[in-house]
Amino acid sequence: METKIDGGSKHTFPNDSNQEKETPQLPDSFWTQIRGFNYQPSYGSSGFELWRKFDEKTIEQELARGKKYFPRMNALRWWQSWDAFLRNPEGYGRAFETTLVLAEKFGLSVMPVLFNRWHDKVLDYGGIYLDHFLPGVSWVQQPGMFDAFLEMLVGKHAKDRRIFAWDLCNEPYSYSCPPEKIPEIVAAETAWLESLYRQCKQLGARAPITVGIHPGVPLKRVEPFSDVLSIHPYWVHNNHSASRQTYEKKLNEDVAFALKVGKPLIATECCWGDLNDHVRVESVRYSLSQLRKRNIGYLVYLLHHSLIADAHRPEFGPVGFPGNLAFIEADGSLRPGHEIFNEF
Length: 344
What we know:
Mean pLDDT: 94
Structural class: alpha/beta
CATH topology: TIM Barrel
Number of strands: 8
């Protein structure tokens, strides 16, 4: 899939006094055509475990299932593990190349997620913590500590057309308190992300760079180091304080911001989970209909059953507030009703 960036196209809104105010839409582009998934292999409960136990056969089988059930899916958001890389850089590089080969086999372009800042109290995924970027807070910090990882992935694949974008970090600025109360941490995290962006550009990255943010982070914070804007518009149906009006208003604001700055916008995670299949299907239906209404491409969370947080039924381990987000069951069958993806 060849990447074509078309974020600067002008868009006008119809002006008809006899109609309701139009919902803002993104102009057609490569990005609006993305219909894919996040993928976490089934055999591990953390990024470190998934990459240290890299299983090509299982991954190929699970991607084949995905393409069977969702024949029009065209992209994957594939999380990486810096900590696993440190244990065996050369082996990690070979495994990364294998993932691209397998994705291409099934007609899928890849968005690698270089680092992760989302952490879970039930089953933590691992990744980056304050110790890694807040100046003076920990002895683990070393000059150039991420250089070899970026050179192995981004440098060696700078012009790789199997990669349609690089996600610098999943859900940075994940705090349990208002960011205005911790300005020094926000500033340090921003400086870290900016440094990653510069390094990727210096390494010659051809694919655009993005940062996948959760709904509490304003797009304007990451726009300076995002060639493409990425949002995680989860409709949290089991949050009793949530309203559809607020959800749709936020989507409208994100689209309006993307149009204002002339950059593409994509949902790199969406579709909140549930243990009840019917409830989850209706949540998916609402979420995807709202994204399509605004012409937003998306990478749904999550393609396949996995032992990571919120990607399995209770018999496979602890389950948190989001329930089960997987579309394919542990036995390889399609989760009931989840062919709903194909309707969009």
